[in-house]
Amino acid sequence: MANGEQKQFFEGLLIFLLLFIPLSVLLIFQNNTPPQNNGDGNGSEDKDTSAHHWGVDSASYTTEEFFACVKDNYGSPEVWGRYLGEKEGVSSGITKEEIKLFHDNDIKILLIYNHFTDATGKENGIDRAKHAIKLAEELNVPEGVAIFADIEPDYPVDKDFMLGWMEEMEKSKYVPGIYGVFSDEQAIYAAFNEAAEEDEKIKEKVLLWTAFPQEGVSKKENAPNYQAFGPKDAKILGWQYGLDGETCNIDTNLFKKEILEYLW
User: Fold this and answer.
1) Structure pTM?
2) What is the pLDDT of residue 47?
């Protein structure tokens, strides 16, 4: 090879290497970068704390002293979950005085309905929804607010109850929601998926508030990243990550910002 040809060959090789090596490194980096989670349920994690709102729920009447206990020991809630109507030995119903206290402190109210221990049967779901609607109307709860049926882990549950709850709530001015431990090992998880097989719109129409996984009660400033778990493609907007606070009797939660439009 002549000197001129050698020079052209090495110049071409150098240009090739300068282009090929950076491109190869970029492709290797992209192929080894883990996928990003979006916090949309099913165990995904979302580290964007600005997209979530911290809150609590409680079964007892909220006095000024209890309210101060929560703020002083855990932080200022943006959402507070309370129950519709008295359930003797279990929970006190939210009062107009509490409603004023929460609203005066710019706290959104999440409404919970728990007047049942059996979540089976379509007629039962319809009847429970009618009762929840009646209790909400007695408090002048405005249109568009969600009511969450509290299905505890030891309750029998089936798809028919969920479909009945959804259908009757949709006839009202309120929005259907369901609370439960939506672990894939729980009956409520299977029941929801069976309901979705029968009527797929339940994934869009019914809001879910899940108590799985459990991370333990925390202060607002120490809340975990949002990693609510529940049925695939369901509208999971709340995560109760900590149960039974010792200092004040509360549970701690994180909520996606989308839930705010369904709160009071």
Assistant:
1) 0.83
2) 55
- Which residues have a Cβ under 8 Å from the Cβ of 57 and sit 6 or more positions away? 80, 81, 82, 110, 112, 240, 250, 251, 253
User: What pLDDT sits at residue 246?
Assistant: 83
Sign of CA dihedral 45, 48, 53, 56: positive
pLDDT at 48: 56
Cα angle 41, 47, 51 (rounded to 5 degrees) comes to 75
Please give the C-alpha separations between residue 35 and each of 39, 45, 160, 235, in angstroms, as whole numbers. Answer: 12, 11, 37, 22
Which segments within 59-154 are labelled E, that is strand?
79-83, 108-113, 146-150
The DSSP string of 203-224 is HHHSEEEE--S------GGGPP
Nearest to 61 by CA among 246, 210, 254, 250: 250
Q: How far apart are CA 149 and CA 179, in angstroms?
A: 6
* Cβ-based neighbours of 190, under 8 Å, separated by 6 or more: none
pLDDT in tens, 147-205: 999 999 999 999 999 999 999 999 999 999 999 999 999 999 999 999 999 999 999 99
